[in-house]
Amino acid sequence: MNAGEPTDDPFAHTRMSLAEHLDELRSRLIKGLSAILVVFLVAWFFQDEVTRIMARPYTQAMGWLEEYYVQEAEEVLAEHPDRKRTEYFITDDPSDKRLRNFETRLVTIRPGESFLFVLKVCFYISLIVGSPVLLWQMWQFIAAGLYPKEKRAIVLYFPFSLLAFLSGILFGYFWIVPYGMYFLNRTVSIEVSTPSITVQYFLTFLTGLCLVFGLVFQLPLLMTFLASVGMLDPRTITKYRGHFVVGAFVVAAILTPPDPFTQAMMAVPLVILFEIGIWCAKAAARRRAPGLGEGA
Question: Is the pTM of this model over 0.85?
């Protein structure tokens, strides 16, 4: 082919040697990781505010639990007038509702645990806030090697995928974690035990559930994508609703703590997302081939 002659090759002007590719990748990684590092340093500077935000679901749950324990203690004292009020409360004053041996804050049991907690919190915050920059840099590197049709598909689905993932994280943070923590701890009477949760256990509980729900919220988008490329028939999956409901509770039992409440809090949203996914898959199938997505 002569120089200057038109070509159908979309990569004609973007071809690079292996060394050039590696240099480009290194440059993109440095920019993306630098953004994460900057966010980490900012989070570390504001570590008090950041750790309070991270501990919010626990503080909220313990506030609810304290109200529940106060009510429970008052009922026990009303049924047994011979018992001393100081068995449950700090003072004998009926207006003083401060419980004895009840701590609404997270605790540490090993040296350095607080430091590791702050370190992990700042790291997770830096990943959440800084990762879009890293992903954008990786997209700039990968996009140069994609065909226009492939680029359009990624540009169409990726923003929704990121939004769904963040929505799942927020759903876990604002709903699942505080209510799950409250329910898990109120199952035992105040006469038997009171919660004393370590910072490391809570952080593992929080990040685990938020990550799981971030992935779970990808379900409608995954179903839509598979239907749009012809790998999923909406009419077929509609027939297996009952099987999916059972499967959702089985998956929830595996991925969540071993109690029915937390499992239901995961399984029910999973079923709702499945129904949304069916609706979206039908719409995608109709666009691909009119009449294909029709049916119950």
Answer: no
